[in-house]
Amino acid sequence: MRYAPDEHQARDPLSGASGSATLRVHPSSATANHLMPDDLWYKDAVLYELHVKAYADKNGDGIGDFDGLIDKLDHLVELGVTCLWLLPMYPSPFRDDGYDISNYCDVHPNYGTLDDFRRFLAAAHDRGLRVIIELVVNHTSDQHPWFQEARQSRDNPRRDWYVWSDTDDRYEGARIIFLDTEMSNWAWDPVSKSYYWHRFFSHQPDLNYDNPAVREEMWNVMRFWLDMGVDGFRVDAAPYLIEREGTSCENLPETHDVLRFLRRRLDESYAGRMLLAEANMWPQDVRPYFGEGDEFHMAFHFPIMPRMFMALRLEDRKPLIEIFDRTPSIPASCQWATFLRNHDELTLEMVTDVERDYMVEEYARDPVARINLGIRRRLAPLLDGDRRRIELLNGLLMSLPGSPVLYYGDEIGMGDNVFLGDRNGVRTPMQWTGGWNAGFSTADPERLYQPLILNPIYGYQAVNVESQRRSEHSLLQWMRRLIRVRRSHPVFGRGTIEFLHPANHRVLAYTRTHESESVLVVNNLSSSAQAVEIDLRPLEGAIPVEMFGGSPFPRIGKLPYMLTLAPYAFYWFRLRWL
Amino acid sequence: MAAHSVLTDELVKQLIAVGQVDVLVALPTFHNASSAAGAARAAVLGLARHFPRARSALLHVDGGSSDGTPDIVLRASGPDLDREIRAQTLRTIQRISAPYDGLPTKATALRAVFASADLLQARAIAVLDPTVTSVTPEWIAALIGPVLRDRRDFVAPVHQRHPLDAPLASQLVRPLVRAVYARRIEEPVAGEFGCSGAFVTRCLADAIWDREMAPLGVDASLSLAALAGPFDVCQASLGPRVTAPDAPRPALADVFRQVVGSIFACMEAQQSAWITRDGAQEVPLAGEAPASLADTTPLEAAPLVEGYRSGLRDLGDLLAPILEGGTLAALREAAASDPLAFRVEDSIWVATVYEFAAAYHRQVIHRDHLVQALVPLYLGRAASFLLECVGKDLAEIASRADALALEFETMKPHLLRHWEPNHGGES
Lengths: 578, 427
Known about the structure:
The structure holds 2 protein chains of 2 kinds.
Chain A: E1 2-3, E2 47-50, H1 52-55, H2 66-71, H3 73-79, E3 83-86, H4 114-126, E4 130-136, H5 145-150, E5 164-165, E6 186-189, E7 194-197, H6 212-228, E8 232-236, H7 253-269, E9 274-277, H8 283-286, E10 298-300, H9 304-314, H10 318-325, E11 335-339, E12 346-347, H11 353-363, E13 370-371, E14 374-375, H12 379-382, H13 387-399, E15 403-407, H14 465-470, H15 475-487, H16 491-494, E16 496-499, E17 507-514, E18 517-524, E19 530-534, E20 543-546, E21 561-565, E22 570-576
Parallel strand pairs in A: 2-3, 2-15, 3-4, 4-8, 8-9, 9-10, 10-11, 11-15
Antiparallel strand pairs in A: 1-16, 5-7, 6-7, 12-14, 13-14, 16-17, 17-18, 18-22, 19-21, 20-22
Helix pairs in contact in A: 6-7, 9-10, 9-11, 13-15
Chain B: H1 9-18, E1 23-29, H2 36-50, E2 56-62, H3 69-76, H4 79-85, E3 93-99, H5 106-119, E4 124-127, H6 137-150, E5 154-160, H7 167-181, E6 183-184, E7 193-196, H8 197-205, H9 218-228, E8 233-240, H10 252-269, H11 271-274, E9 281-282, E10 285-286, H12 301-315, H13 325-335, H14 346-362, H15 367-388, H16 394-410, H17 412-419
Parallel strand pairs in B: 1-2, 1-4, 2-3, 5-8, 6-9, 8-10
Antiparallel strand pairs in B: 4-7, 5-7
């Protein structure tokens, strides 16, 4: 199969063949003009997701802050990532790790001030790092002043900013997302004596996007941050903005109207900024969120993630081939975002029942690791700390279509603590050194927002940035090399993919092609050494050059190309016609 | 191809591509165009339905069919089926289809299958008979499940039959094996079975393939190797066994060579394993025992009686060095009896079989001639059984067959006595 952006819409910003290759910077976004002039920068991006609270604590209160983050930007530059995605840093009662926002136009005092944020943003931009932030559009905290006003009376001007009902039986077609905690999508408000609609936790009332004032206000929120210079938004829970009776209340045309409204406003004044959709759905259902290139620039491709883990455990390429078979093409200006792990559980919503049972049994034998429909573990513990498997999955992430998103700490193989409740076990302080509080904070350990990982395998004394920076063969150094190679070749971010079908199903092989550049990727998904013969006749005459060491391999001829791969090994070959 | 390899280069190439598997279903074919598709399809569906997590493969080896069998198997088990089972299975169900080297016999094919299974380190193997059209996906579960689940080494099938069907099995093979090997196994000679990787490895290491009669009766050789060796054997209920109308129907003489000759050869080779055994242990059955089929078309007794009489007459003195005088006299007496009252009594029949087996062991005459000489005597016994069962219900017929099996057990000392090297033929 062949997966490719819609070629008819293709615009090549590198060659400038069509369209503008210059960065159009809004006059008020003064911090962005040093960045590479490319509106499609996100197609080549390597994103890095982090919690401000978890990264570095400068003021010694036990909670990470923007000043601490500024101090660690050089680590991110050295790692090679190009765009930071900050998890919610807004004022919040923190009943959902900050996704319950009580003020959209400020930062939480735990992390600093708006001025601190501006300094952070400038420092990131100075280093060539873009920054995107969370935009929780679907709902607010019940502590948000908008909701507090709305509940005061039925004729309050803010009343219609949320979705109210006298009964709790409307929109029965909508599923309950947080099955472990919520019984209904309606919650009783004792103040106004009516029910309000919430797709997530009951303390997160949904905004009413049928009300134009809400759309306008959300655009004002976006403009507030865009004017400050942020490079984009990761838009949380995009599919749930509108409710209609007799539907699932997901992916409705009216929701797309809202999203196109926000995109239109963005394009009018803020070229080069990016919207990234969180829509945990099958790719064919996510496809409309790209619209005709007029909704989101990027969207997460959720189903790839569990299938990478599944393919590895099954030692079979079938799950990955199948999901790419089901992945539609997207507009040329758009891009998938892919990831191995993030701040949430390893979600198993987008798998079949058979697959889910298998994944849970293989990756979460201990029931305490399970939450909702997923597994609350970090990358390294999921893979038993096996460096070869960690490398292979990162190799897949970096070489398959899409822009990869790394989760903080996974570059050093941090562990987790499933006993911390909810998904907090994957949100523990970043491990910088083997010293006091892992170099995260000077506070007393008891004051840390969450305890450090202390066990002998993943504890901060064993796993930390400082020690891995000193070791040439550490995971951190390996990740730097991997990212460097990926970034050196736009084919990974922009190229088409064509899967090859060698008889050996333990081997996943594909070519990536962009303009005149072609790359051959061969992955051994198996725990044992494998021999594989690949039909490469269409590439006859090319000399494969291994991309990490630069070694040339025998020229491709008419006969099947024979390779042997060590357990979990992979090759990236640049194909040279010399 | 490497010298002495039972695997062709093409087969090795495909095996390398597949690598280690958990479950292997083998379909050895030779000119089975009319029937093999069903088994191939059932195999893939069975793997998908019952072993969705296993690393599995369908291994099709062909003896050089010129009727399009390989293409038919490939089509029946190919991409269309993949689309059908996509949601059921996690892994790719691998397909291997290649010719095997050597004469197109079941033994050659199974040797290639076993060698392939060994190379792939398969944990469980099911072998299907390409002439059988009643294979269902559940057969795969029944043959493989006990190996994976209960660590059995050999899974023999139990088919749903009418008790008057297959008189060779009910009158000779089943009771003989039961008494000699002291295991109550329903189908000691079956075209389909399940087995473990350990069993495969052991069989490859043993001289089983080179044994006398093995090329003809490999099914019996493998079953008896399981019963004789340190293997955990069980049975699995499969349902009715229906063969294709155009499936080869070998002459009775050839069947005797394949089945009875093989059993005698195995008894010879495995005497140290069975000679001290007595009684007959139950062999566990996975699943429920099948009810007997209600309908059958029994053989006609009269032609069998005639065959017996003429055979006995033609054999003349040939039987003298094989049988005791008393046994031979009783057989001749039966031949002279009134057709309606024709009987070959249990004790006479058991003595006959045992004395033939012992004579085979002692090589009193050419072994192939000896096996052929048993054919007319068997016809007489089959006729006797059919006449005896006229008007009896299913339970009574089954009970009658069981009585014969008990007689085989009871008279095992008779076999042992004749088995001794210095036995002169008379006692």
